[in-house]
Amino acid sequence: MLIFVILFTIISSIKTIEEEPCQTTFCTENKDCQHYGYCNRTKNVCCLGAYGTCTNPGSRPVRPQIECETDNDCGYTYCDQQLKVCCSEGESPDSHCNGGLTYYGIEPECVEGSCQEDAECFKGHCCPLHKVFDLTVELRALPYSLNVRCRNNETPPFRNTFCRRDTERLAILGETRVNGTKNVETERFCVSNLDCSLDSVCVFSTTIGRCLLDPFQEPRSEFDFLMDPIFITLYSVVAVSFLSVLIMKAIHKVKKNDYYDGTFSTDHNLDCKFRYPY
Q: d(Cα 26, Cα 16) in Å, to the nearest integer?
């Protein structure tokens, strides 16, 4: 009986190996398969197999393979704590929330009725209700923050979305700011957040990007413009120029005193005496 079980296990393993997708690339260890799964030691070729499945539904390890300890090691993707490699946030349509804005596996877990107003509980995770038409996201009442990673130097992937500076997560623009006040558009055009002031974000509502005051932040006061990077640079240039003039005048005065000493006689005629340092 024991022999039969062993034989059945071996045959099942061989069948699994034959069925799993493999390449003809020769390998001896996993690092030889940077762009395709793991090294099957039986066949010495790169295969996907179980190694190609990450924790989140529809996810696979990114290629080239990146080892990690935390999500911060992976940029846009996440660190799978079982495999200790960076995995995509979903490559299968089955892993997307309705509308394709995000992957439900990375969004907050939920039970029916526990999500915020503009979200629904989909497969145990909160998914936004926003509809997407030709890469344009419809606006709902308030801004909505996703768990999709983003960078301040990247252009938003959808119209009416932006990268939050404080969390580096993608967010959807609302009809109003989070406190109910209207969105404030600045005079600047942009491609990314780097083109905007520190309290603004880059949003493409049309084909042209504009800087908007961060919808998740409190409105700035009338004096906050003084902290704008452009104004700070201007202040610095003016201050350095002013100090340079003062220093040059001081140096000139010292040199003049070293070589010239003027006194006035009693009849108010200028009596000049030159003193040489030799």
A: 19
Q: Are 58 and 94 in contact (CB under 8 A)?
A: yes
Rounded CA-CA distance 235/138 in Å is: 41
Residue 163 phi/psi, 5-degree rounding, is -95, 120
Q: Could you give the maximum distance between any two Cα atoms of the chain, in Å? A: 134
Domain-by-domain residue ranges, the chain? 21-53, 60-92, 142-218
Q: Which residues of 86-105 are buried (b: 16+ CB within 10 A; e: fewer)?
A: bbbbbeeeebbbebebbbbb
Residue type (1 letter), 20: E
Output the pTM of the full model.
0.54
SS3 at position 164: coil
Mind listing the pLDDT tens digit for each residue in 144-198?
Answer: 999 888 889 989 988 999 999 999 899 999 999 999 899 999 889 999 999 999 9
